[in-house]
Amino acid sequence: MAGIAQRPGRVRYTILAMLFLVSIINYADRSILAITAPLLSKDLGIDPLQLGIVFSAFGWAYVIAQLPGGWALDRFGTKRVYLIGITLWSIFTAAQGTVLAFGAGAAVSILFALRFLVGFAEGPSFPGNARLVAAWFPAAERGTASAIFNSSQYFATVLFAPIMGYITFTFGWPYTFFFMGGLGILAALLWTVTIYGPRAHPRVTDAEIDFIAAGGALVELDRNAVARPPAIPGEMAANLRILLSNRTLWGVYIGQFAINTLTYFFITWFPVYLVQERGMTIMKAGLFASAPAICGFLGGVLGGVWSDWLLRRGYSLTIARKVPVVSGMLVSLAIVACNYVDTNTLVLLFMSIAFFGKGIGALGWAVIADVAPRKTAGLSGGLFNMVGNLSSILTPIIIGGILKSTGSFKLALVFVACNALLAAFSYLVIAGKIERIEDAPDTALRPAIA
């Protein structure tokens, strides 16, 4: 009986399941405009460059929100800040279905503004995911846990692209926004009864707390966050100096920027590519996009499992994280082959290979959970996500400009592949040793007591 009493519990997997569910809705709300774009752009009378600018509205706000969102997570705790975010982004998503009521001219500006607000509300989400994974999972499970919540971007397409395609085709594109907004509100309600810090969870056992803490989980993270006094002037600046002066973090930041270029091609322009370049209907494009998404999901989970397996086999954390990232990015270069084939079957094959590789290499959040200073995990994740998501601004606009200039996606796919090479180079050459960064000493942040 004593052995049974000491067996670690599995509450942490309930936390991970909730992160996965919310992240699926998060990414579905980001990609909803891509599914509805072929019809929406006709109704609003906008060209590809204008559509790219509307796509980028999310990215502008998402990037701006990262540092304040990360600070808020550290200051007020993950559960509270994340809940506010889910509720707000769901309301703003539903509101996008009403833009036609304002007339085609005003609708474009209002759509841009609502996409901007969705991006700002989603700002704390993935730093919050990384924060909860750092708090709930030991280092040997962190790669898999991070890969699972990060792979939600693919599962969102698998699950929701066909559904959103059907709603758009059958009822009209506004109803797709209403559907997703309502689903987000339901997720917010579920969040309130599911997410807690390790020490505060009503069902966690002492054995599980001891197990994850012994493995490096930051079990006091949210408890410390809500107990901290308000930040003094200069505290954030001091912490930022530490983060911005670290070479390994810069390698991870640049790598995430490049990896996210592949992500934002997929969730913005990929359905348009299938409709305009490959001549598919919206419903067929939604179904077609599911295959690369499934491969990306499988690659994402495999990358995390592979990384943690290398760690358990005795390889260093540096090797365990870098090998899957670099390997996956090299595999994702297969996307260029789509420029040289004529059949949609081969396009499906090469896109699937490319996003399988991208999934394997998407371990940036695991690395941030490994290296972030203990007291500034939210700020660290926010800075990482801010730099990484600059591509959410640039990618839609650059690809929109390429399309307007050339009328073809060929150069756009080359642009995406070049970013895969940049990601591999960044992790292989720029990033150094993967290890936890020391916090700034409190004496450096706070004035002496008289």
UniProtKB/TrEMBL annotation:
Main localization category: membrane
Fetch the Pfam families from UniProt.
MFS_1
What parts of the sequence cross the membrane?
A: 12-28, 48-69, 81-114, 172-193, 250-275, 287-311, 323-342, 348-371, 383-403, 409-430
User: Could you tell me the superkingdom of the organism this chain comes from?
Assistant: Bacteria
Topological type in the membrane: Multi-pass membrane protein
Keywords on this record? Cell membrane, Membrane, Transmembrane, Transmembrane helix
- Supply the SUPFAM superfamilies for this chain: MFS general substrate transporter
Checking InterPro entries in the record gives: MFS, MFS_dom, MFS_Na/Anion_cotransporter, MFS_trans_sf, Sugar_P_transporter
Q: Where in the cell is it found?
A: Cell membrane
Q: Where is the Major facilitator superfamily (MFS) profile domain?
A: 15-435
Full protein name = MFS transporter
